[in-house]
Structures are given as structure tokens and as C-alpha cells.
Recover the amino acids of this structure.
């Protein structure tokens, strides 16, 4: 009996595995066998969603609208008019920023008329010469942080201009500059609402959970249906995608404000709005600004994905280049996006950590020195532009705006590199590729697909029961049931197989690299910087080098997923190991442990809950990336989402598929979180 | 002193104030008919914070609420500042019913009449010293110029000149609390709440800040509710002390009376280690005035702490005259009495009094 008590969990797991194996062996693979595959009870759902969306867009609540083109009233649906108006608004904003950067007439027309613009040749808004933007970013970097950031900003801007990516880059920037602030404001608003009202929080939290685990592609379809295609749709999809982390971090920050600060605000006689705007939000600034940072990252990650629904800019060009397998160009564009992401990231962080200088008695010039320098600089650049016009004559004015693909390009170099690699490494790469596919991936895939649905349920719900009792078992069971009742169970299994393969590899690499780096203060600092930098890369970028090496295969997708998903595993391992209390380290040293004993007996047990949270992130990252991998061609849920994207009636399928992916993620998330929380309580770390 | 105070109008008046945390606190309280047993409440998932507190604080008085952690002292303070809602009872501020006030009235009250200092300072991390101090004024809608001028005055008052543009994180604990004090005084409140203001500070700094506090009170003469867990601090600062245990006020009296006649065993434990001569005033060992011929040339104030005048009195062979603030002789004291006080058995002292 004592033996049973001591190894209770182990025995539970053994019994569970026994049941699982038995079911796997006994259930006959037959489509009519309910233990093998559940019937697709939810198969009608996508159609119903399509019908509902159509009804909402075209029939529900008809209103009379005046059509100025036809000069008469016509009937239209309320939702359609609302979304149309909203799209128009967003589009105008994007256009406005775009024309400030690149020049144009459309926004001028909005304030005057076509006749006015037609009559007056001067009524054209010229583009900002790239030199002005260059000066502006350098100055901004210098003002916020110092020389290094100024240098980085300068290099980025010059790179974009010199490599002839100015126009698409500014197009991308124009929608980031609209989407990011809107996301931030929405996030702040909802975060504040959730902080104020417990009810709002309980409603928002599950929505946020689903929203943050839905793959990017799934957002595109409903947005496309309701808002059409174009830059505005891209921006709207981006906003929907980027807002949830902002809400979460705002709420977190507000909750962390010390109660005394709140009381001090009350005792100073703050009204509700003064409390929120002057006390709570500024005090929670740190977390909120991390949220802002996340928003910027998400915006750039979406830059590529939004191009599926017509957002112009770097993302669109990148997609095109990838499709044509023009690796060199894709690489240049990818570097562009990464640089913009890194610069915006660093700028926003610098702004967050900026100390306001309050030594008041500075002169007018001192207080406005950056503004004045910028104006002087701008004037110089404008003159330079006119000089350029004379120098370069009728040819391209390199001081004004370098047109697309008229800059330098390194494409031939990369193409040569790829050719060289194909020539020299082909055999080695191909052998590895074949080995991986035939000896590892195929059997694994077959094993997943050969699993009867009843066995899967027993396994997953059993794990849920062991970790968190009946409650957890029912929760994960519910998530799975949803997927099992759709017609995509097999696809979900393939997604699960790819994800779990990637997660296992990532976790092993991440924990090993993290553990090694955590042995040394300098190394851990370096690896954290590397992780930070890699995390600012939009997920899409990871596909470029692997396609270069492996071409369009499953191996490419999986390697990209592994690289991307290793980042959180490594980061959390380092953080977890480094945060083991110094007293415990000392206690270990005094007991005479060697490095390995320290790692096994002291560091790992204490850091393990934190590392598991890292693995949790790894799962989410891997899921996202597997879905994005559909771009290169896989046959899992992602591929079906991609298909739904080009289908007129895709909204139902898209949403259901998105939910399937989200539920896989949420089930894993629930299991790991419950486990880690219990462990943390057991270790007294809460 | 008590005789002067009782004539004045109470600034703060609490009658049967209860604060019970928990889901059905109100219901439980109404069932208990005024007899609250913390244990019974705990079994039904409620925690009693304040249990039947009734007292008054008079104008210009320092009432120190003293108790160990969990005794409900901070909760009582928060009830009176209405940072938490009272479960039952009445609180009157200057005769106004605090608990009946609308949120708007409450804001007005806080903007004009109340100031509060917090244990961990509660400074706004994104604002400088000057901005923190000016914050209550700006919230009130004062112009920037006016509030900054006033804030500068406050900076000088608490001795932080030259640091007005520092951020809280750049200051030491003592300096941060000076900012907290300055902020709470910026709107010139009548009532000053201090919630363990010096507990987070080092002992030496704490002493310095207590002196500073007494200096300020000498100038400003506010009505003060001061919360602390340090009995010696209470003795040093208080006009009257309320000792709390498990939400109940065990005893509310002047420091001298608490030391000399502790009402309960709990209070006695605190007083055991207290050196009486450092707490008691001459007044408490004073005897009726003897004939002028028996008095020496030395005179001591009746409010002087015994310790501070002991040496002088001991070197005087004759009786020493005790005078009040106006110089009238109100009694006398003899060296033997002081010696008895210092070295005699505590219990006999009590009996003699």
C-alpha cells in the first residue's frame, strides 16, 4: 500500500497509457466505427455561419441611404453601411499618412474638390524627400536614447532608401502608423474597463484567450467579408490582432499599481477620470508600454499576412518574391521589415524609459532645440532636393525619392549563393531531407493518423484528470470534442503532429542552450539579447532562409517552426535558472555540489515551473508558425484556412478552422498552466 | 489637557464603528446585536477589522492609534478617511455625517479638509517632487503657477530645497516621506491622517522624522490621527493613545495614564518595559503646592518630561515649584518623589497615586 501511495501519479500514468495502447490496438480503423472517428456533427456550422454573415451584411435591418453618384435613395443593410463608413474612415487616415510620406492628391481632394485639383497644377502634395525622413529618424533616435539608436535609425532609413524599397516601406509604415495607435488606444480603453468592472473582465478574458491563440489567417476572412479588400482591411485585421495583448498588459499594469498610490490619489480628491488618467495609467506606464511594444511587433508581423487581403507595401512584395522563389529579393525585403520592426521597437522602448528633464529654467531654444534642428535640416534637404533636380536633370532625382527597384540590389549575389548551395550542398541537404521525411516525419504522421479518436480522448482527458482533476479533464475534453465533431479531425491531427514534433525539438534545444548559457552571467545576458532581437522578427521572415536551403518541403516548414519556437523555450529556461534565489545557490555551494549536481538538484526543480511556461509559449509559437507554413504547402488545418481565404463563402470554414487551431492551443495551455501553478504553490513561489 | 479639550467641539466623532470584511458581513452584524465575537465571525468566513469603536478627536489634538499588525488600526483610519466603507456605525467630521456623503461631497471634503500620509509613501513615480506635492492642488483645479508656488513653499517647509526636480526613486526613504508629508499638507487640511508614516524608515531617520513631525505640528496645529505599531513612538507623539487589539480599542487615554494604570493585561505588557521618567510629565508626580517658604528658587513646567528636569530637581534640597504655561504655581515636587519614581517599585508608585 505504501508503494501505491508513494508512486500514485506514476501508476495513474501507467494505467492511462495501458488503456490508450489497448484502444489503439483494438479499435478497427473504419469510417463508420464511432470509436475510430466521431461523426462530423458540426459539418453544417460553416454553412450556417456563412448564411448568418450574408444575412447580416445584405438583409438585416435595411436602411435608406442616399447615393450621391446615382443621386437617389437606395436600400442597403445597416451593417453594410456601417462597415463601409468605417472602412472609408480608416482608408482615408492611411491615405493621409501615406501622402504625407509619399505625396499625392487624394487627401487634398477630400478637403477641396477634383475640379480644384484639376484647375490648379500646384495643388499636389509633394513627397517628403527621403533625406528629411532620414534626418528626422536620426534626430528622434538621438533625442530619445542617444548616439547608438540614432545610428541604428540612420542605417535603417538609408538601407531602405538605397536598396530601392522606399515606396513599399513607406506604404507599410503608413498603415502601421494608423493601426498601432488605434490598437493602443483600444487596448487601453478595454484594459481600463476590465480593471474597473469585474464582469467586463470575466467576459473579456476567455475572448482574449481565444483571440490570442487563433491563427493570423483566420482573422483575415471575416474582415474580408465585412470590410472588403485593401489597405483598410489589412489595417483592421491588424488592429483586431494587435489589440488583445495590449488589453492584457494594460490590465496587468493597472492591477500592479500599489494600493497606497490609489489611496493617495483618492485622498488628494481625484475624481474617477482624474484617477484613471493622472494616477493609474501613468503609474502603470511600464507594463502599458510593453503592451505598446507588442502592438508594434504584431503590426509588422501582420504586414506580410495582411497583404493576402490587399494591404500594399513590403509584405505584399515579400509575398510576391517568395512565390516567385526570388530569394535575394525576399531577403532584402525581409531585412527591411526586420529593421523597421527593430527600430520602432527600440524607439518605443526608449520613449518608455525616457526620463523627463524637469530642470526648468532652460531657454526657449534649449527646450525646442530638436524641433529647431529638424526644421533647419528639413529646409536644407528641400534645397538639396532642388539641387538634385538640376544635377540629375530629367533622370531620377536620387535626393528626392528613389523609385522602387531603382536602388542597389544584392539579388544576383544571393541568387548566385543559392545556386552555389544547390550545386554543392544538394546531396547532403537532400540526404538529410529524405532521412527526416522518410524515417521520422512519415512514421510519426502515420502514428498520429492511426490513432482512434477514442484513444486520443482517453489520453488527453486522462492527462487532464491527473493534472487538474475532473475540471481539467472536462475542459480539455470539451476543446477536443469541438474539433472531433468538425470534418477536419484528420487535419487537426496533422497540425498536432507537426506542432508536437517542433515543440519536442525546440524544447530540447531551448532547454539545453538555455541551461548552458545560464551558467554564466555574461552568456545569459547575451542570449537574452539574441532572443529579444529574434522575437522582433516577424514570423514570416523565418521562412526565407529555410526555403533557400531546403526548397519547398515539409522540412522547410518544420525547421522554420523549430527556429521560431526555440526562442521562448530558451528565454524562459535562462530566466528560470537565473532567478533561483542566491541563498539556495549558496546553500548548494556549501553542501559541496558540482555544476551538474547543482543543475539537477537545485536549479532545475526550482526553475521547472517557469520553464514549463516557456514550453507553453513554444507550443503557441509553433502552432502559429505551422499554420503560416501553409504558405509553403502543408496539408494540415493551415492549408484549409488558406483555401478558405480564397473562397467566396470562406468565412464559416475559416472561423471554424481558426477555432480548431485555437482550441488545440488552449487545451495545451490549460494543462501546462494548471500544472505550473500547482507546482509553484507546492514550491511556495506565489 | 483633557479638561481643555472636552470643552472644544470634536472634529472627528465615531460612534460604534464596525468594519467586517466578508460576503455577508452586514447580515451577520445585524444578527449579533452589537456583541461581536471575532471567532464566531471567522467561522462564517468574515474577518472583523474594527469592533465597536467609539471615540472623539478634538481640534489640535494628536490621537495616536497603536496596535500590532492585524489589530485593525489601519482599517479604522481607512474607515474615517472613507477609503473603505464602514459596515456599521456613525462617523462625523466637523458635525457632518461622513457616511451619508455623496461621492462628490466626499471628493470636496478630501480636497479641502483632509490630508493623508502613507506607510510606503504612495508617491506617483512619474512625477517629480514638486509635481507630486502640487498634485492635490492641480486635481482641485488650481492654476499651474499657483500650485507650483504653493508646492515650493511646502518643499521648503519639509526641508527638501534643491531637490524639487528629483523623482521619487532618486530620494532616500526619509526624503520620500517628507514629500508625502508635504503633499498631504499642500491643501492646508484641517485633519491630518498619518498611516504608520515612519515605520518603513531606519531607526535614526525615524527619530529625526518624529522631531520634524512635532516641529510641524507646533507650527500648524492640525487635528491628527496617527497610526503606529511602535509604542514608544506613540508615547513620544501622542496627546492621547488608543491601543487596539483584534479590532477592539482596549484603552484610550493620555500616555501617562496608560503607563500608570493600564486598563487590561494586554496594555500592561506594553507598558512593562517603558522607562516611566521618559514618559511621565512632572504633572503626574506633582503634589499640592506647599507654602512659599518651603520652595526653592527652581521652577519647572508641569508639562516637562520628568527625565529632562530630573537632574535639576535632584540637586535642589527644597521643594521645587511646578508652574503652568502662564507661570502660575500649580503644585510642587520634591527630589524624594523623583527618586522614588526612578528607583521605587512600580506597583507602589501606582498605589501612591
Amino acid at each position: 500500500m505504501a508503494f501505491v501511495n508513494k508512486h500514485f501519479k506514476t501508476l495513474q500514468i501507467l494505467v492511462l497509457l495501458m488503456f490508450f495502447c489497448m484502444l489503439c490496438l483494438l479499435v478497427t480503423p473504419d469510417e463508420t466505427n464511432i470509436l475510430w472517428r466521431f461523426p462530423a456533427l458540426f459539418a453544417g456550422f460553416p454553412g450556417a455561419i456563412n448564411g448568418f454573415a450574408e444575412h447580416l451584411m445584405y438583409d438585416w435591418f435595411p436602411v435608406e441611404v442616399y447615393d450621391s453618384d446615382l443621386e437617389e435613395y437606395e436600400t442597403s443593410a445597416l451593417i453594410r453601411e456601417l462597415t463601409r463608413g468605417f472602412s472609408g474612415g480608416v482608408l482615408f487616415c492611411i491615405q493621409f499618412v501615406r501622402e504625407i510620406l509619399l505625396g499625392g492628391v487624394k487627401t487634398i481632394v477630400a478637403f477641396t474638390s477634383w475640379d480644384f485639383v484639376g484647375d490648379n497644377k500646384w495643388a499636389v502634395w509633394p513627397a517628403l524627400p527621403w533625406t528629411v525622413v532620414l534626418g528626422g529618424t536620426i534626430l528622434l533616435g538621438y533625442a530619445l536614447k542617444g548616439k547608438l539608436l540614432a545610428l541604428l535609425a540612420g542605417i535603417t532609413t538609408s538601407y531602405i532608401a538605397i536598396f530601392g524599397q522606399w515606396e513599399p516601406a513607406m506604404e507599410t509604415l503608413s498603415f502601421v502608423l494608423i493601426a498601432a495607435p488605434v490598437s493602443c488606444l483600444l487596448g487601453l480603453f478595454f484594459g481600463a474597463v476590465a480593471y474597473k468592472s469585474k464582469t467586463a473582465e470575466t467576459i473579456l478574458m476567455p475572448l482574449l484567450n481565444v483571440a490570442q491563440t487563433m491563427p493570423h489567417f483566420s482573422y483575415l476572412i471575416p474582415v474580408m467579408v465585412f470590410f472588403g479588400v485593401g489597405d483598410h482591411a489589412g489595417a483592421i485585421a491588424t488592429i483586431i490582432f494587435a489589440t488583445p495583448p495590449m488589453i492584457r498588459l494594460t490590465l496587468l499594469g493597472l492591477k500592479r499599481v500599489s494600493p497606497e498610490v490609489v489611496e493617495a490619489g483618492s485622498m488628494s480628491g481625484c475624481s474617477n477620470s482624474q484617477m484613471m488618467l493622472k494616477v493609474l495609467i501613468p503609474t502603470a506606464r511600464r507594463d502599458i508600454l510593453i503592451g505598446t511594444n507588442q502592438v508594434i511587433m504584431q503590426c509588422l508581423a501582420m504586414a506580410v499576412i495582411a497583404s493576402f487581403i490587399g494591404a500594399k507595401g513590403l509584405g505584399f512584395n515579400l509575398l510576391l518574391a517568395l512565390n516567385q522563389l526570388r530569394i535575394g529579393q525576399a531577403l532584402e525585403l525581409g531585412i527591411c521589415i526586420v529593421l523597421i520592426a527593430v527600430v520602432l521597437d527600440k524607439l518605443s522602448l526608449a520613449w518608455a524609459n525616457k526620463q523627463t528633464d524637469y530642470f526648468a529654467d532652460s531657454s526657449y531654444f534649449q527646450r525646442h532645440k530638436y524641433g529647431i534642428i529638424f526644421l533647419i535640416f528639413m529646409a536644407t534637404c528641400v534645397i538639396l532636393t532642388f539641387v538634385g533636380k538640376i544635377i540629375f536633370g530629367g533622370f531620377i532625382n536620387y535626393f528626392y525619392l528613389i523609385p522602387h527597384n531603382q536602388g542597389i540590389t544584392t539579388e544576383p549575389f544571393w541568387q548566385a549563393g543559392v545556386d552555389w548551395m544547390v550545386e554543392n550542398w544538394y546531396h547532403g541537404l537532400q540526404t538529410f531531407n529524405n532521412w527526416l521525411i522518410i524515417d521520422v516525419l512519415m512514421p510519426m504522421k502515420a502514428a498520429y493518423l492511426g490513432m482512434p479518436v477514442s484513444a486520443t480522448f482517453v489520453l488527453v482527458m486522462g492527462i487532464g484528470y491527473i493534472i487538474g482533476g475532473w475540471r481539467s479533464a472536462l475542459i480539455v475534453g470539451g476543446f477536443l470534442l469541438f474539433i472531433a465533431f468538425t470534418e477536419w479531425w484528420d487535419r487537426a491531427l496533422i497540425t498536432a503532429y507537426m506542432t508536437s514534433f517542433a515543440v519536442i525539438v525546440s524544447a530540447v534545444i531551448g532547454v539545453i542552450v538555455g541551461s548552458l548559457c545560464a551558467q554564466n552571467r555574461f552568456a545569459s545576458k547575451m542570449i537574452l539579447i539574441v532572443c529579444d532581437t529574434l522575437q522582433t522578427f516577424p514570423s514570416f521572415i523565418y521562412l526565407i532562409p529555410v526555403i533557400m536551403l531546403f526548397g519547398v518541403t515539409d522540412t522547410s516548414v518544420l525547421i522554420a517552426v523549430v527556429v521560431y519556437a526555440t526562442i521562448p523555450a530558451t528565454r524562459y529556461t535562462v530566466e528560470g535558472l537565473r532567478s533561483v534565489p542566491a541563498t539556495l545557490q549558496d546553500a548548494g555551494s556549501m553542501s559541496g555540489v558540482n555544476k551538474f549536481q547543482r543543475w539537477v538538484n537545485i536549479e532545475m526543480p526550482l526553475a521547472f515551473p517557469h520553464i514549463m511556461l516557456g514550453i507553453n509559449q513554444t507550443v503557441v509559437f509553433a502552432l502559429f508558425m505551422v499554420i503560416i507554413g501553409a504558405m509553403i504547402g502543408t496539408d494540415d488545418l493551415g492549408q484549409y484556412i488558406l483555401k478558405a481565404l480564397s473562397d467566396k463563402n470562406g468565412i464559416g470554414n475559416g472561423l471554424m478552422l481558426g477555432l480548431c487551431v485555437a482550441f488545440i492551443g488552449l487545451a495545451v495551455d490549460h494543462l501546462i498552466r494548471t500544472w505550473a501553478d500547482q507546482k509553484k504553490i507546492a514550491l511556495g513561489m506565489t | 489637557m483633557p479638561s481643555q479639550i472636552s470643552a472644544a467641539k470634536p472634529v472627528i466623532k465615531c460612534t460604534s464603528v464596525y468594519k467586517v470584511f466578508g460576503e455577508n458581513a452586514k447580515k451577520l452584524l445585524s444578527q449579533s446585536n452589537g456583541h461581536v465575537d471575532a471567532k464566531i465571525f471567522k467561522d462564517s468566513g468574515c474577518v472583523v477589522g474594527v469592533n465597536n469603536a467609539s471615540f472623539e478627536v478634538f481640534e489640535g489634538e494628536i490621537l495616536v492609534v497603536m496596535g500590532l499588525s492585524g489589530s485593525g488600526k489601519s482599517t479604522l483610519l481607512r474607515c474615517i478617511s472613507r477609503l473603505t466603507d464602514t459596515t456599521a456605525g456613525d462617523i462625523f467630521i466637523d458635525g457632518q455625517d461622513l457616511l451619508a456623503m455623496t461621492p462628490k461631497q466626499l471628493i470636496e471634503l478630501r480636497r479641502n479638509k483632509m490630508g493623508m500620509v502613507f506607510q510606503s509613501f504612495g508617491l506617483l513615480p512619474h512625477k517629480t517632487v514638486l509635481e507630486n506635492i502640487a498634485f492635490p492642488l492641480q486635481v482641485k483645479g488650481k492654476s499651474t503657477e499657483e500650485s507650483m508656488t504653493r508646492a515650493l513653499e511646502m518643499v521648503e517647509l519639509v526641508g527638501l530645497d534643491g531637490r524639487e526636480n528629483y523623482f521619487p526613486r532618486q530620494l532616500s526613504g526619509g526624503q520620500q516621506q517628507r514629500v508625502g508629508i508635504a503633499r498631504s499638507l499642500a491643501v492646508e487640511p484641517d485633519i491630518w491622517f498619518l498611516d504608520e508614516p515612519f515605520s518603513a524608515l531606519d531607526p535614526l531617520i525615524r527619530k529625526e522624522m518624529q522631531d520634524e513631525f512635532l516641529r510641524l505640528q507646533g507650527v500648524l496645529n492640525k487635528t491628527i490621527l496617527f497610526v503606529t505599531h511602535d509604542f514608544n513612538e506613540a508615547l513620544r507623539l501622542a496627546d492621547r493613545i488608543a491601543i487596539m487589539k483584534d479590532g477592539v480599542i482596549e484603552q484610550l487615554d493620555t500616555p501617562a495614564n496608560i503607563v500608570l494604570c493600564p486598563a487590561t493585561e494586554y496594555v500592561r505588557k506594553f507598558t512593562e518595559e517603558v522607562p516611566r521618567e521618559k514618559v511621565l510629565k512632572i504633572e503626574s508626580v506633582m503634589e499640592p503646592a506647599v507654602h512659599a517658604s518651603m520652595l526653592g528658587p527652581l521652577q519647572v513646567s508641569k508639562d516637562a518630561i520628568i527625565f529632562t528636569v530630573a537632574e535639576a530637581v535632584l540637586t535642589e534640597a527644597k521643594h521645587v515649584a511646578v508652574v503652568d504655561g502662564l507661570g502660575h504655581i500649580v503644585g510642587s515636587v520634591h527630589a524624594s518623589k523623583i527618586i522614588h519614581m526612578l528607583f521605587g517599585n512600580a506597583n507602589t508608585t501606582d498605589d501612591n497615586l
Remarks:
- Residues 427 and 469 of chain A are 52 Å apart (CA to CA).
- Residues 411-449 of chain A form the longest helix (39 residues).
- The longest strand of chain A covers residues 62-67.
- The two ends of chain A are 33 Å apart (CA to CA).
